[in-house]
Design a protein that fits this description.
Layout lengths: L2 H18 L3 H15 L5 E7 L7 E8 L7 E3 L3 H9 L3 E3 L17 E9 L2 E10 L7 H20 L3
């Protein structure tokens, strides 16, 4: 199956999952498992969510699939994760060894994408994907990961009282 149609198939499946599950947590659990299991180059997939009221602002590891990470809490001003959350912009790093912001989790990680999750226009967390392959995240992959982050944001919005 061509990569583009595989990505589209997974994108559609995740959209269906988002409609079927009751909570954002269930969606994040299903999402990280599906992306980790079905996307060959997605070696670590996880969500970091902003801890409400934390001073300084802190990203806290939530649902994830892959190796255990020592980075369960990341200050907003550190790492590629902190850069994405504080800027509200997707960050794609083709070679983590060349990015001074990279917080080493695994010696095998070669590239990373981090996409903010928004609720009513405010960053509340992010979806982080690491790959053992350099330059693993093409524009099609970026679109898929951004779609996932949007689905989670919408689910979080719909759960509000």
């Amino acid at each position: 199956m061509p990569a583009g149609s595989r990505i589209e198939e997974i994108r559609n499946e995740l959209t269906e999952v988002a409609q079927a599950v009751a909570t954002a947590r269930e969606l994040m659990q299903a999402m990280v498992k599906l992306l980790h299991d079905r996307m060959l180059k997605y070696n670590w997939v996880g969500f970091y969510m902003l801890e409400p009221g934390a001073k300084p602002p802190m990203l806290v590891l939530g649902e994830f699939q892959g190796a255990i990470t020592p980075h369960t809490r990341i200050p907003l001003n550190q790492g590629i994760c902190g850069a994405a959350a504080s800027s509200g912009q997707t960050v794609v790093v083709d070679d983590v060894s060349k990015d001074p912001r990279y917080l080493a989790c695994s010696l095998q990680t070669r590239s990373e994408i981090v996409v903010p999750v928004f609720v009513h226009g405010t960053v509340v967390g992010e979806l982080d994907v690491d790959s053992h392959f350099a330059a693993a995240f093409t524009p099609e992959h970026q679109d898929l990961v951004q779609h996932c982050a949007r689905l989670v944001g919408k689910k979080l919005e719909s759960a509000e009282p």
